[in-house]
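Thread: quick sanity check before group meeting

JM: Hey all, I'm pulling together slides for Thursday and realized we never actually wrote out the predicted structure for the chain we discussed last week. Dropping the sequence here so it's in one place. If anyone has concerns about the input, flag it before I start.
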Amino acid sequence: MEIADLLSGPDAVLACVKASGKKALLAELAAKAAQLYKLDERRLFDRLLERERLGSTGIGGGIAIPHGRMPSLSKPVGVFARLAHPVDFDSIDERPVDTVFLLLAPEGAGADHLKALARVSRLLRDRGLVEKLRATESADALYALLIETLPAQSAA
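JM (edit): ok, ran it. Output follows.
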């Protein structure tokens, strides 16, 4: 699975997002995903909050991968955001987050959801790429960086 399979295009990338905190960021991501993928914004936001209550999706290093399942989806999809200023996300390393990849999957997409999550996680563990993402202010340039990364490994 490639990152380009998850993002609908440059319109699924947000640059310089100004969010006051975790909930505001999740609300903005939910609004964007609802618009792009024809989802119920409130239901999506509630799902994201439910998932965060189980444990933060802030994986450390200023990165978060909030995720959830939505019954109306037919395949995994995503929205990428680079924040103008880091926000507290209750991350495992207690560092604020400035790089976020929202991942959504269909209700019954067990293996596909896990493959997509592994792919996004592997992508965002590339420190060189994350530095480039943090130095980029254009959504089009961010999208190009995201989709021009190493091809997915068959084990994922």
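AS: nice. The longest strand covers residues 77-87. The mean pLDDT is 92.
JM: adding both to the slides.
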